[in-house]
Amino acid sequence: MTDADSAYLTDPANLIVDVIGGLSRFAALAVLADLGAADHLRDRGPLTPTELAVRCGADAPALGRVLRELASIGVVASAEGGRYALTPAGATLCTDGSMRAGVLMNAHPTFRYAMDHLPVTVRQGRSAFADHYGGMYESLRADAELARLFDAYMYSRAVPLIEAAASLYDYGGIGTLVDVGGGNGHYLRAILPRHPELRAVLFDVDHVITSARDAIAEAGLAERCECVAGDFFANVPSDGDAYLLGSVLHNWSDENCVRILQNVRKAMSPEGRVLILEYVLPDGDDPHVGKDIDMRMLALFTDAPERSRHEYAELLAQADLRIEDVVELSNDGSIIDARPR
Q: Which end of the chain is more exposed for a tag (fewer CB within 10 A), N or C?
């Protein structure tokens, strides 16, 4: 190691330099996703910047600079004759890839407004994004393309958690699983085929349940899963053996979370359980994907935080529930298994 290398590694400013550099790397990813360039590299590559630019309708010298940056982080790889080939990481940015929607969503001007104005949000204690756009869900209702990207992004992000929740938790002893705020049944469509002894109730607002019935039927689960419309702030279906709250509570303030949990507690039997599928933040300073997500939640909603085990325990106690166990899943996700106190 040279003296210059040693100085670089020990300079505390380099941590900040690397974080700032992340903005450039993300911008390059957004170019690849926006142009659909990953599809061309997969189907026709390796390609030179000029060959790729012709296919994408882009400027060749500018695209070449982007490819050079992406090659430095392993999204593409240099090949013979000045060409670039797509790597497995880059393939996730193809049209049918798992990460394209996530990149496009995070690069969208509406979403960028929230993150760019985070200092304003922190100063005033209220989301600058909500002040400007009226809230995240209002923005989605007003912009069909943004809503499409958001749905695709949420699904791609949830897939690892869904698969892990279906396979790593022990559903033994559960006869009926009620998925509260379960959307179009992503979780149940993964859980039920793996656990043929289970029956389920999918519970969400009316317009969501209307489309969810088709998704459940297409999965061949209509005979095992009842779809029920309602409002979890008012009540939830009764007599379930377990109640699943999958990525629900992090969307709401503490006060609203307690209301949801109290309604679940009223509906469940004394032997029932509540399964909370969320990112549970560590108490220490270790990096965690939930901490990154929490910055987005702060920017978009202000009072809808990611929470630690201790914070979930406090919410549960207000609904006469306690933590029985925390099952660690993939991608830093967890299932909190809560029981009546």
A: N
